[in-house]
Amino acid sequence: MASRSDPLTLEVVELIGTVVARYYEEYEDVAAKHSLTGAQARVLGLLSHEPMPMRRIAHRLKCEPSNITGIVDRLEARGLVERRPDPADRRVKLAAPTDDGRATAARLRDSLGFAREPLAELTTVERTLLRDLLRRMLGEEE
């Protein structure tokens, strides 16, 4: 097992940090072009996959539910998100994208080239290996 301070581990950690920083920088720039904050864009992107309650959004984005409430309020005011009762538990409200919200999320995704362009240069085997290693690092092995 590798040490936390061996040169290879330190280089990998540094590279991951650089990838994350560049991803967030591009996400912020793309979001601004759609008059959104990076946080609003991330919430909208997450909701474009499936409606979810505020607590789950907060858990997925590693932030406080009260922050998500404010973000959803602003997205709702712009007509990009709506709140609706959860069919499984009517006491719970789900945040869900409107048609305009789904279209905006798709445009945001299409505008993000940083990760997609270098990944396109990898083979399917390399992308699969990278995905599996990242899942393993996150404890999401299947």
Automatic annotation (TrEMBL):
Keyword Transmembrane: no
InterPro entries: HTH_MarR-typ (IPR000835), MarR/SlyA-like (IPR039422), Tscrpt_reg_MarR-type_CS (IPR023187), WH-like_DNA-bd_sf (IPR036388), WH_DNA-bd_sf (IPR036390)
UniProt superkingdom: Bacteria
Keyword line: DNA-binding, Transcription, Transcription regulation
Domain HTH marR-type: from-to ranges: 9-139
Keyword Transcription regulation included in the entry's annotation: yes
PROSITE patterns: HTH_MARR_1, HTH_MARR_2
Protein name stated in the entry: MarR family winged helix-turn-helix transcriptional regulator
Organism: Streptomyces pathocidini
Phylogenetic placement of the source organism: Bacteria, Bacillati, Actinomycetota, Actinomycetes, Kitasatosporales
